[in-house]
Design brief:
Layout (H helix, E strand, L loop, with lengths): L3 E7 L14 H19 L4 E6 L6 E7 L2 H10 L8 H13 L7 E8 L7 H13 L2 E8 L2 H15 L7 E4 L6 H6 L2 H4 L29 H39 L1
Parallel strand pairs: 1-2, 1-4, 4-5, 5-6
Antiparallel strand pairs: 2-3
Helix pairs in contact: 1-2, 3-4, 4-5
Pfam families: VWA_2 (PF13519)
GO cellular component, one term: nucleus
Family: Belongs to the proteasome subunit S5A family.
Amino acid sequence: MVLEATMIAIDNSEYMRNEDYPTSRYEAQLSATEYIFQNKVNSNPENTVGLLAYGGNGPEVLSTLTTDFGKILSGAHETKVHGGSHFSSGIQVAALALKHRQNKVQNQRIIVFVGSPITESEKDLEKLAKKMKKNNIAIDVVNFGEESINTSKLEKFNNAINNHDNSHLVTIPPGPRLLYEIVATSPILMEEGYDMDNGDLGGGMDGFGGGDLIDPNMDPDLALALRLSLEEERARQEREALEQEKAEKPELDKIDEDQ
């Protein structure tokens, strides 16, 4: 089992509003982000994952390296779609977050979603890739949405960063399959324990009931229904926690008065 610290960099630029991937580019990458998190922490209990958004006015760390799915989920869903893409600075901030990992034995990896045009030149991207490679950081790129514009640049970036096949470029054009399904069966996660014989993806999404494994070839409508069910369950748990907190507050206030 690979021991890794992984920063996931999501694109929250205006291009992510496009609905050429269900239900939008932004929502499609969030589903994939959730899946990647579960896959990483299930493959090794000492793995940690962080989250960063590199759109808007500039990169923003949404969650430092953690094993707490709630922190990742909260950061992802509180982020607004706005502004432009800051690919290079996003990668550099993600690398800085990895540098501050508590367990220095962990390998360093960045998984970056690219759903808007990359404005950096090929020369600048190559320079960035060499810097990351020198610092022993592997980078996986999920290229979607603007793949006709970005693929050539990202292929050269991948060639420059790749060290003994430790970095991958996955290009995903619009289609009937959900984005996370394709990521799940790509080299980005295939090395993390995917069993082609039984469809085992290294652990189910938390909340899908009894830890059942997700079949990457499941019907897209069923996959969407499961995800909505998961979100409804989380909302229900949050409501119950809030109600319990309100119910306990008078008791705590009474104890304070007695003291």
